[in-house]
Amino acid sequence: MTLSGIKIVAEQEFRVRLRTGRWRWLLVAWVVVIAAFTSLLRYALGLARSASEVGMNNIGLPMFGALMLFVLGLALLVAPALAAQSINGDRERGTLATVQVTPLSAWEITLGKFAAAWTTGLVFLGLTLPFAVWAVLEGGVGPLRALAVVAVVALLIGVICAMAQGLSALFARGITSTLMSYLLVFALTVGTVIAFALVLPLTLKEHEYTIANDLGESTTRTEEVPQPQYVWWLLAPNPFVILGDAAPAPPMQFNPDTGREEPVISMDPLSTIGLGARSMRMDMTDYDRFQLYSSPAVWPYGLGFNVLVGAGALWLSARRLRTPARTLASGVRIA
């Protein structure tokens, strides 16, 4: 495996993509949607700040968080289309065998196709950067926080592209691999939440509370309290949980209600998701919200799991591209 071989395959994939004009229109549609969303979001936040009695500082904080969550959602819809037919599509058109008989190895073909798909996804992300800079200039978001969030989104796009390419190598038909790619995205986003909600009631545990009244009398009450610290890992692979938890903490400010320095999370959707995920690792029978800011992170486990699955998908792709092929699915053409 050589870098030049990977580059040759990637360049060929780019030529094929550029020959079809639909990618240009898709890029234009992406920019229009992002621009419309950012403009409407800024207008809505401006109205909220004007209507607020106490004022709303750091308007860039909610603007940037909502924008990056929206971009991630769109990227999860676009990424499967970039790689879901990269292998079986060439096989159906009879062009894959022409590449396989060249001195290029299976890993060079695999990584070249993956590099083309991931780079195309990064182009979509790059078109979002001007709007992210706009949010940063609104205040409340530091450059390091913005760069970290964008880097996580870029990595998640690559993971989804790798998974979709693995499904393209596994299934003989392009329509099947595309459908399975979107089902995989659904499982990582909505499916993890559904699984967590279904399993959480199984962790209920009785806990006794002692309540004292004004007369000094105390009563004991027993309630069933869920124990999410046993099943938090079900939410860890969720891309939105990973993004929210991996975002660096916003700046600390003095809270007059508690008399302590606390991060500003009331208007930050990323921090709200991240702290919500970290709270799942705490015992609900002994909950202290001040310990939440120093609770263990969730995103390393979720991101590590997704990266491992993506690496496994690339390994599967290389294995399915090895020649000579011992077996082929029924109806699959060679050349």
Question: Uncertain runs with pLDDT below 50, 5 residues or more?
Answer: none
**Strand tally, please?**
4
Secondary-structure element string:
HHHHHHHHHEEHEEHH
Give the strand order of the largest sheet, numbering strands 1, 2, ... along the chain.
1-2
The portion of residues forming beta strands comes to: 5-15%
Radius of gyration, Cα only, in angstroms? Answer: 24 Å
Instruction: Give the integer mean of the pLDDT values.
Output: 83
SSE class? mainly alpha
Largest sheet: 2 strands, antiparallel
Please state the overall shape, judged from the principal axes of the Cα atoms: globular
Number of helices: 12
Q: Level of helix content?
A: 55-70%
